[in-house]
Amino acid sequence: MRPFSILPDPSMMFWSERHKRAYAVLEYGLMTRAPLTVVTGEVGTGKTTLIQALLRQTDASMKVGLISNARGDRGDLLRWILNAFDVPTPPQADYVALFQTFQDFVLSEYAAARLVVLIIDEAQNLGAETLEELRMLTNINSGTDELLQMILLGQPELRDIITRPELRQFAQRVSATFHLNSFELETSRDYIRHRLVQAGGSGNEIDPAAAARIHAEAGGIPRLINKIADLALVYAAVGGARTVEAALIEELIADGLILTARKEEPVQDRLVLAARGDAKRTLP
């Protein structure tokens, strides 16, 4: 098993404190049937892996649809959504027909005692107008029962879009939100050790100095750590070395195999949980 594959793999999940909190927010959204839950983070911080882990916990009481990289104009979003739930639609259907089809689907699932959960990855690509269209879909919910839940994952600019004045109604529907920052040095070291052990190693195949150099070059982004560590293990094997040292990482850099990672601007840690009413509480 490759310890540092860049593909999302819940079985290799490293539960940093930040990832535990992000997952708690996702679970909170499902448990309370929150209409909108939002998790953001830089590319490669593990948002998709979190969702894959969450999907393993869903049961027959939920009908889950997953959309990645959705784009398009008004009406296209509904086609994306219906396709995610395998609901057939005529190519010539107009917006009203598409909306009615979706509403009928949600109501039929509710009648069967199933909650409809829509997960949208890379939601920053939707833009302000499409996000407002999503908010309108939550109007399907009525009375005391929530028929439709949405979980949005995206890059940091998604937070910027949501906090625009014209999307204040959308923001008010968001019951829980969390931002995944990049790793600190010690967390990166623990992450590297964890992946090595999970793959059957001792955890010492990459020494602490090399791990620190990987962290600095990757800017603490897990996906970039994986790419650098994977190359380092290959270089070590070719050279007959049993341990990756900092000098080998410098060799990778000198050979031009590593693109310097852009360091993330720090985002203030904030975990906001809101009940269905107006009351909110903020946790550190």
Summarize the structure in short.
The protein is α/β, with parallel strands linked by helices. It contains 11 helices and 7 strands. 44% of the residues lie in helices and 15% in strands.
CATH superfamily of the largest domain: P-loop containing nucleotide triphosphate hydrolases
| Count of folded domains | 2
Helicity, as a percent range: 40-55%
The first-to-last residue Cα distance is 37 Å
Give the neighbour order of strands across the main sheet.
2-3-4-1-5-6-7
Q: The CATH topology of the largest domain, please?
A: Rossmann fold
In CATH, what is the class of the largest domain? Alpha Beta
> How many strands appear in the DSSP assignment?
7
Walk me through the structure.
With 284 residues, the protein is an alpha/beta fold. It folds into two domains: 192 residues, P-loop containing nucleotide triphosphate hydrolases (Rossmann fold, 3-Layer(aba) Sandwich), CATH 3.40.50.300; 70 residues, Orthogonal Bundle (Helicase, Ruva Protein, domain 3). The chain has eleven helices and seven strands. The chain has a seven-stranded mixed β-sheet with strand order 2-3-4-1-5-6-7, with helices on both faces. The longest helix has 17 residues. It is elongated and about 65 Å long. The two termini are 37 Å apart. The C terminus is likely disordered. InterPro entries: AAA+_ATPase, AAA_22, ExeA_AAA_ATPase_DNA-bind, P-loop_NTPase. This is ATPase. GO terms for molecular function: ATP hydrolysis activity.
